[in-house]
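Holo model, OOB. Inputs:
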Amino acid sequence: MTQDASTPPTPLPSGLTPWPRETAARYVAAGHWDGRTLGGLLRHWAQEYADRTAVVAGSERLSYRQLDERADRMASGLADLGIGAGDRVLVQLPNDAAFAVLFFALARLGAVPALTLPAHRITEIGHLARLSGAVAYVIADEYGAFDYRTLAAAVLEQAPELRHVLVAGDPGPYTALAKVDAEPRSFPDPDPADLALLLVSGGTTGVPKLIPRTHNDYGFNARASAAACDLDQGTVYLACLPIAHNFPLACPGMLGTLSVGGKVVLAPSPAPGDAFRLIESERVTHTALVPPLIPLWIDAAEWDPADLSSLRVLQAGGSKLSADLARTVPDTLGCAVQQVFGMAEGLLNYTRSADDADLVAVSQGRPLSEDDELRIVDGDGQEVPPGEVGELLVRGPYTLRGYYRAPEVNAVSFTRDGFYCSGDLVRQLPSGHLVVEGRVKDTIDRNGETVSAEEVEAHVAAHPQVRRCAAVGIPDPGGEGERICAVVVPVGAAGPTVQELRGFLLQRGVASFKLPDRVSTVAELPLTAIGKIDKRALRTLLTTSDQT
Ligand code: OOB
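Output:
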């Protein structure tokens, strides 16, 4: 589905904002878009890898052929419920075989999963149900001591278009997902250039947005990522981050691993207790974490007797990994680290196995595709000189041209020529690798000086008594602007005092207006649904507590 470059990008009836016709033709000619659907891809893999193990989850082990057949049966069952091409289905499942089967079943029908995270609650799910106009909501009975059937009751009240609640496990008053099963029959193939799935935006501010992804672009995302990360049939990928998130789903994640005939192991959680057992028993070679989890794994590896020797690559992404932490991974976890700077909106950057150790430690990788077009701009939209920090704008073969049903947001999130304005501040090294320097809006306005929270965090985190740090602006009681508060998770019982921290930063040669005015010590930083530091929650925490 394409349109002329001269016409403004109007979304298709599906909600997808298409790429201009000539651009789409270029992506097809380059081989990026191969005209296959996600359902068709599984059929192809099932022929190629037949009896090899595709998915392991709990006590279930599915070969490629079994996964293919289960997807066919569930597609027929869903069709019997009246779910068909173009219908949106809200999916909120933990990492389990049911997720994989459902994902491909929906793809076969041309129905569109809206992939929400297990940590989402009524605020997010109610909003996403209404925004997507979903006809069905698929949940687990319980997960993480939470009953999703109760949530479903609340969602049903808010979302008039919702007709079915399907439950993996004990259905209560709803329909058991296990009963959504019928003799396989074939369905017309959806258009590979049209909407295949909706991802939820990962922002830490505002309500979540829905990100349309096509069969063509998501297939490319997975396949090209698998190649950039050197996956092959011997790959055993452990998905321990929530599988509905782009990172473990397709970067290269589950889909990338399946594209090369590897084995996907779905872990119930990223807790070392769960993940380490699976690494040992399934001989896991690759996995992905958000950086805040890495110190927990390093600590646990010191005393946990699990054999982690099969692990070759730990991918770190979702938020900034410090160079120091990156450098400790090989010695502590016995594997290489790979930095991944990605976004559900599209663009992915990976450090590559051939990059030298320093580049892997200090950069967040370089773009996946030679057709990713990057611009790094100042506040006026002008490109900054090479090597300088600016906002990252991007367009390319797997980066969206518009959010789903969001004309107002789209008017400000894209340039006229289709670049997505990421809000990320980056600088580019001569090698093409990017260094993430913060968010455009994550700054502290201190007495008229704009201070980057990320920069303060990096300096504070270098203090030996600091395990983790987040810097936030708090209202300045004596003036108009803000003061800098460093929220610190200490290494031992007590972290550094504000005087000690200020002295430490001064010694590092940091300008005095960037020094923290206040230090707040916490046992853990609040995290978002995927595990990034939740600055909104932090600010609320600080305004409701007076600990200094
Ligand atoms: C991933 O996707 P989202 O959509 O949850 O979040 C995207 C945002 C980026 O715009 C950036 O602000 C931040 O998360 N981010 C990073 C980062 N990776 C993502 N910031 C610093 N360093 C990194 N390595 O988070 C995501 C999607 C696919 C693969 C990996 C991560």
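The domain at 1-30+372-441 is CATH 2.30.38.10 (Luciferase; domain 3). The mean pLDDT is 94.
Archived with the compound record.
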